[in-house]
Amino acid sequence: MILWAIWSNHNRRIFEGRFDEPTEIVDRAGRLLGDFLVCSGLDELVKPKQVVFKHKWKAPKHGCVKLNVDIAIDDALGFISNGVVARDDRG
Fold first, then answer.
1. Same structural domain for residues 74 and 57?
2. Which residue of 1, 31, 37, 49 lies most exposed, with the fewest beta carbons within 10 A?
3. Domain tally for the chain?
4. pLDDT digits (tens, 9 = 90+) for 29-40
């Protein structure tokens, strides 16, 4: 689906002079895949799997700090958010 969405965007750019942002292309591919799964009856068979992490957080060596960084983008609302967590050897 993603390749089709990229190819379709390429053709739109050449023949219509329009160009979509990469996030729009990925969103379109996701919608196409969702539509395909529903129309083919596979949506009940394909369910997202829950990710289970088997390892625990380990403290860094004394005098060091671990950083966890994340970012979220909501193109529809135009919001960007980020977060940082810094932990030393005491947690």
1. yes
2. 49
3. 2
4. 888 888 888 888
